[in-house]
């Protein structure tokens, strides 16, 4: 362990306990003397000393602020002509500084406002970090989030795809505008859920959704068999164009709201139970029988609600073709809605995002964190029965094709 001879000014000692800066001034003086001594060790000569062992010459100092619990110190770091002065102090400080930066980033992800972070860091470190500084720190996330959000998806197949959008407010061109954050969640062939990515669109138009689905396919999204979503017209048109041959399952939760909105209050509970029975039917044939009965009994009482039921029947019961164990998880977008709730919890703190990059940074980091939990948690679905069912479906199609050719 190196030992250094330190001298302390008498005035600093006298003022050590008389003011707020006494300890900081003492520490600053001591550390600057240590830095000077370390420079002498590396040069193997004191300032202005003539020595054959000298390894170089000094070239003044540079100021280096160091935030500590006793205040901000200004260190005079030696500069060398023929090399770079090195000390372990700054490596250690950089590690602790990096830990602080990561903590600040984590606070932002968890929904803590930049104002609160400023207050917390001031209390912990004795120095105030501005809101702009906190925002700049969070940009460390950008390359990490971008790499995750743009990762190649070819490693897995995703038989089940769930998509939804959440509207966020973003400041653009001096105005606050609503923008659609489109999110896709997939269930891979191993039965684990994955958050596949997020993009921002001007609205939930067909063009925005088509661009989103094209982006997923460019990242090698494949094997999609069932897509679950609400019935937004732009989304549905884009789905049919981008995932031809896939089955669309309309979210039953959204559908029930549509039916109830068209039903008088005194009949809502009654019709809800009847409609729920259709959705819980064991097979398509039973569901259709129940639907016909409801149409017969309520067609004249609530014509708008019944028209909604008839128009949406095939889409809300599409999941009935799957084995029973998969129906409950795939008949609604409730899993995505719960993800949206987590986003909203942060969004209530942010309220208005300064730009699109800040949305991708914050929401992307949150989704990345949730995705990691899903990957290390319990398997969402056991896919073995699904693939056996799919093989049976292929055999049935081949058999039906042969029969039709013979006929």
Topology diagram in text:
Blueprint: H1 10-14, H2 22-43, E1 58-68, E2 71-80, H3 88-109, H4 114-125, H5 131-138, H6 142-149, E3 160-172, E4 175-187, E5 193-201, H7 206-218, E6 226-229, H8 233-242, E7 247-250, H9 252-261, H10 265-279, H11 284-298, H12 303-316, H13 327-330, H14 334-350, E8 352-353, H15 356-376, H16 384-406
Parallel strand pairs: 3-6, 3-8, 6-7
Antiparallel strand pairs: 1-2, 3-4, 4-5
Biased composition (Basic and acidic residues): 47-56
GO molecular function, one term: transposase activity
Keywords: DNA recombination, DNA-binding, Transposable element, Transposition
Features:
407 residues; alpha/beta; 6-stranded mixed β-sheet; two-stranded antiparallel sheet; 54% helix; 16% strand; Mutator family transposase; transposable element
Outline the structure in words.
Residues 47-56 have a biased composition (Basic and acidic residues). One of its GO terms (molecular function) is transposase activity. Required for the transposition of the insertion element. Residues 45-65 are annotated as: Disordered. This is Mutator family transposase. Strand 1 and strand 2 (71-80) form a beta hairpin. The longest helix is centred in the C-terminal third of the chain and has 23 residues, at 384-406. The chain contains 16 helices and 8 strands. The strands form 2 sheets. Strands 3, 4, 5, 6, 7 and 8 form a 6-stranded mixed β-sheet that branches. The chain has 407 residues and is of the alpha/beta class. The protein has helices at 10-14, 22-43, 88-109, 114-125, 131-138, 142-149, 206-218, 233-242, 252-261, 265-279, 284-298, 303-316, 327-330, 334-350, 356-376, 384-406, and strands at 58-68, 71-80, 160-172, 175-187, 193-201, 226-229, 247-250, 352-353.
